[in-house]
Amino acid sequence: MSEDFLYFKFKPINKYLIESLVTPSLYFPKPDLLNDPFDCQLDVRKAFTRAAEKTEGIRKTAFQAVLKSDNLLENFSKQFQNVGVCSFSLLENSFDEPLLWSHYADAHKGVSLLYRFTETYLNNPKEILGVDTVKYGADILTNWLINSPIQPDDNSFVIELTKVFLTARSPAWQHEKEARIIRHTNDTLNIPHGCLEQICFGLRTPQSDIELVSKLAREYSGCTKFCEIVHADTDFGITAIEL
After folding, report:
1. Residue numbers of the domain that contains 203
2. Under DSSP, is residue 230 helix (H, G, I), strand (E, B) or coil?
3. Fewer CB within 10 A of the terminal residue: the chain, N end or C end?
C-alpha cells in the first residue's frame, strides 16, 4: 500500500497565493532565487577537491579526472541552476511552529498550507526529478561524494549529485525539518484537485483575507479544512483551532 506524503508550506497572502488556489499549483523557483544565499550555492569544485583528498584508488582517480575537466564541472553547475525547487516543512505540528510563521507567512498575516501527495503522483519522472528530505551538515556534498556507492561514471551519478546538491543545508536551518520536490524546470506545476488538504490562518490574518482565501480554496482547490492560530495558555505559546 502506497504512503501519502504530508507537506506544510508557509506563504504570505498575495496574488501568487490567489493564483495557486484558483489554478491549483505549486511554484518551483530557480535555486539562486531561494531566500538563503548559501542554499543550493555550494562550491562543487571544492567539494570534489576535498573528496579526492580523502579517497584512494579508482574513486580518487575519477574525482581527479572530473577536476581536470572544466566543461564537466560547468555542465554540473548548469544542471543544478536550471532545475526548480519547491520547499516544505515536515514538522508534524507545523501549524504551531512560531519561527516558520514569522519567517515565511508575513509575520502571521499569511497562511500555512497542508498538502497531501500520493507516492504515485510524486513518482513521475516526466514531471519530477526527485523528492527528498533536506540533510543538514557542514560538508554534506563532500561526504556524499566520498561515501556514495554510485561511481562518477555511472549514468545515474549526475541525477543523484543534483539531488544532494539541492537538498544540503547548513545545520542552522535544521529546525525547519525541510523536504523538497525537485523538477527538471523552474516554473509552475499544476497539481490535482484536492491535494491542498487544509489551510491555517495566522494570528494577524485579516478577516477579509480569511474569507477570500477560504472561498477560493473551497471552490477551486477542493480544500475543505480550515483553522486559525490563537494564543495558547503559556506566555509565548500558540495553537490551532478549527474554523
Report:
1. 1-30+84-127+184-243
2. strand
3. N
